[in-house]
Amino acid sequence: MRRMFIFLVLAIFLFSGCAEQKEEIRIGVLIPKTGEFSSAGVVMENSAKLAEKHAKEVFGINVKLIFADCGDKPETAKTAFAYLSQQNVVAVVGAYSSSQALAVADSAMELKKVYIASVASADLESKVKAGNRFVFRNAYNTSYWGVLAVEFLEIMNAKSYFLAGYDPLRTFNAAMFNLIKNSTKAELKGEDWIKSPSVAPEDYKRVVEKAIESRAEVVVLGDPGPTSVSFVREFAMRRGNATIYSVGGTLALPQVLKTLNVSNVAFQAAVLEGQEKTNLTRKYFEDYKATFGEDANNYAGVLTYDAILIVAQASKGKDLIEQLEKGSFVGAAGIYSFNENHQANWGSEKLRGSIGIYRDGKIEILT
After folding, report:
1. What does the H/E/C string look like for the chain?
2. Do 91 and 107 contact (CB within 8 A), yes or no?
3. C-beta of residue 203 within 8 angstroms of C-beta of residue 195
4. Do 2-140+273-336 and 143-269 fold alike per CATH?
5. What is the CATH number of domain 2-140+273-336?
6. Where are the domains of the chain?
7. CB 252 within 8 A of CB 298
8. Do the Cβ atoms of 268 and 152 come closer than 8 Å?
9. What is the pLDDT along the chain (367 residues), one digit of tens a residue?
10. Angle 38-59/299-314 helices, nearest 10 degrees?
C-alpha cells in the first residue's frame, strides 16, 4: 500500500511536469568549498548539479543553480547567503554545520528569503516558533539522529556503548548524546571529545585509547569528517573489537570503507543504494555514479539534492512558503512534508532514515 502511494504521488508529478516549464527557477546553494567541511562540499555540489538536471528530466522544471562558498564559519555562511539573496533566487538551500544554519536562519528572516537547511540539525524549530516562517529543514533534527542511534543499539542488542564526540560539532553531538543516554537501556562506559585537527591533529588517538579501555560493545562516533577515518584506522590497528557506529558523512562512503579494510563499521544515512524509497532513489544513485564516477552514499549530498527538488516542486505555486507548509514532495530519500515547525517529518511512514553496516567488504542495509 505504501509503495503504491509513493508511485502514485510520483506519477502525479511526472504527469503534471510532462509539459516543460519555460520559466527558469533560480535556486541558491550554500556549499562548503573551503574549510573543515570541504570534502562534504564536493559531494553536495555534485548532487546539486544532478538535481538541476533531474528537475528538468523528471518534473519538467527548468532550474538554474547559483552557488556560493559558505566555508566553515557562521560569518562566511551569512555573507554567502546575502550574496545569493541578491541573485534573484526563490530560495537558498544547503550550508553544513549547525552554527552556520542558525546564522543563515536569522539572515533568512531579515532578508525575507526562504532557506532550507539540508544538513545541519541545530534547533531551527525554535526560530519558527518565534515567528520565522522563512526557515525549513529537510534534514534530520538532532532528536532523529539520536533516535536512529538508539535503534541501532537495539538492533545490535548492545549492552554497553562509548561516546566519542567531535568538538567542532559539540552542540550537535551533545544534544544527540543526551537523547541516547536518556533513551537506551545500554550502559554508558565513557565519553570523550576529539579536538579539531587544526588544534590537535592526532587527538583522536587519545579518544581511541579511552574507547578501547572502556570495553564497550559499540562506539558511537560523532565525527562525520575525515578525522573519523583516522579514528577507525587507529582503532583497528590497536585491535579494538567494538562495533563503530558513525553519524555518517565520510564513513558512509563505500570507497572510503573499502580503503580502510575494516569490518563492523555502521553508519546512518538518509537513504542507501539498493533501497527504493521512490522512483527517484535508483535514478539518483545510478546517475551520480555514471556522472561522477563514484558511489553516492552520502547524507549531505542526497539531502541537498532533495532540498533542491523540494523547492522546484513547491515553486509551481504562487506562495512558496504556503506550498512548502502544505504540500508533499518527492525526493530520493522519500516523500517529504513539513510539520508546524517546518521540520521534515522524519520517522513518518513515507520518510524514514536508513542504517547500514560494512561487513566483509560490502554494505548491509539494516533499516
Report:
1. CHHHHHHHHHHHHHHHCCCCEEEEEEEEEEECCCCCCHHHHHHHHHHHHHHHHHHHHHHCEEEEEEEEECCCCHHHHHHHHHHHHCCCCCEEEECCCHHHHHHHHHHHHHHCCEEEECCCCCCCHHHHHCCCCCEEECCCCHHHHHHHHHHHHHHCCCCEEEEEEEHHHHHHHHHHHHHHHHHCCCEEEEEEEECCCCCCCCCHHHHHHHHHHHCCCEEEECCCCCHHHHHHHHHHHCCCCCEEEECCHHHHCHHHHHHHCCCCEEEEECCCECECCCHHHHHHHHHHHHHHCCCCCCHHHHHHHHHHHHHHHHCCCCCHHHHHHHCCEECCCCEECECCCCEECCCECCECCEEEEEECCEEEECC
2. no
3. yes
4. yes
5. 3.40.50.2300
6. 2-140+273-336, 143-269
7. yes
8. yes
9. 545 544 544 554 444 444 555 689 999 999 999 998 898 899 999 999 999 999 999 999 999 999 999 999 999 999 999 999 999 999 999 999 889 999 999 999 999 999 999 999 989 999 999 999 999 999 999 999 999 999 999 999 999 999 999 998 898 899 999 999 999 999 999 999 999 998 999 999 999 999 999 999 999 999 988 899 999 999 999 999 999 999 988 898 888 888 998 889 999 999 999 999 999 999 999 999 999 999 888 899 999 999 999 999 999 888 999 999 999 999 999 999 999 999 999 999 999 999 999 998 899 999 9
10. 40
**Are 317 and 323 a contacting pair, CB within 8 Å?**
yes
CATH topology of domain 143-269: Rossmann fold (3.40.50)
Quick check: 328 and 335 in contact, CB under 8 A?
Answer: yes
Longest CA–CA separation in the chain, Å = 62
What letters, b where the CB count within 10 A reaches 16 and e where it falls short, cover 80-104?
bbeebbeeebbbbbbbbbbbbbbbb
CB 134 within 8 A of CB 327: no
